[in-house]
């Protein structure tokens, strides 16, 4: 069977065609992504209204491209899947309305997909052996959550950030250090050039929850940079980057370790989201899972950011459960897994 997926929750317009065999093994026939990075870079972040307009301009073109690349016609598609929540409401509505129209006009089943579940499902593409139960860390510019997956569809948020997302903190610190938006990749690289010799606070909240607060680290970094500027001299950008990355990543490791203590019967850990591409985070979780004797699953780098392949991957399990939507489907800016 083939599923045509759409993703438009933020600043990436994407369409993908995935093929599933009788055992659920996935073949990605196409995964087209139209990025808006150049558009938003001048503003230092995503401008929602501009993002919505760019989605409108791109979505039809990339749909044709996804089908052509997959050597498929709309008649070959068994279902249409789309990100319906969470995300920027205007951006989501572009994808939802386009997918609804396409499905209705061609009499195809319509599947609504949660964006967070989509990120997690990116792991199924290269790891068909991955099965629930597992603990997942979803970290991106808009989300930082710890999730317990009991089945492919039944998931519970067990911890989350109370303010800034991890990716958001990376981008804000990078901007202050003079790096272009988005700054996550540049911060990842710069951190290797410095030493983590500056003490920044942990984002792991010291209570009985599995929650984070990344605003404190961000503020501490900004205060340190201002202090250095007032004293004059050269700003130790690499050391600041290394120290920030160390504090942020160690915070995640602390809470994941606590989650493994809380759920001792779970022996699989999944990393997902745009920040899953960060090499320091990947290495730290690899080390934690090795020491804990649990298996770590991480998506290929090309499936870490927002893309439609992950949406179609998640939709497969909704299809098997018969969880279809109709033309009344609406987008939601905020929605739990």
Characterise the protein shown here.
This protein has 337 residues and is an alpha/beta fold. It has two domains: 2-121 and 304-320, Nucleotidyltransferase, domain 5 (2-Layer Sandwich); 131-301, ATPase, nucleotide binding domain (Nucleotidyltransferase, domain 5). The chain is built from ten helices and ten strands. The protein has a five-stranded mixed beta sheet with strand order 3-2-1-4-5, sandwiched between helices. A five-stranded mixed beta sheet has the order 8-7-6-9-10, sandwiched between helices. Helix 6 (184-191) packs across helix 8 (237-262). The protein starts with a strand and ends in a 17-residue tail after the last helix. The mean pLDDT is 95.
Which descriptors would you attach to this protein?
five-stranded mixed β-sheet; Nucleotidyltransferase, domain 5; alpha/beta; 337 residues; 10 helices; single chain
CATH class bucket of the largest domain: Alpha Beta
| Relative strand content | 15-25%
Number of DSSP-assigned strands: 10
The strands making up the biggest β-sheet line up spatially as 3-2-1-4-5
CATH architecture level-2 label of the largest domain: 2-Layer Sandwich
The secondary-structure element order is: EEEHHEHEHEEEHHHHEHEH
CATH topology of the largest domain: Nucleotidyltransferase, domain 5
Calculate the mean pLDDT score and round it: 95
Number of helical segments?
10
Rg over CA atoms, rounded to whole Å, is: 20 Å
Structural class: alpha/beta
Determine the N-to-C terminus distance.
Answer: 26 Å
- Please give the largest β-sheet: 5 strands, mixed
What helical percentage do the residues reach?
40-55%
| Shape estimate | globular
Low-confidence stretches: none
| Total domain count | 2
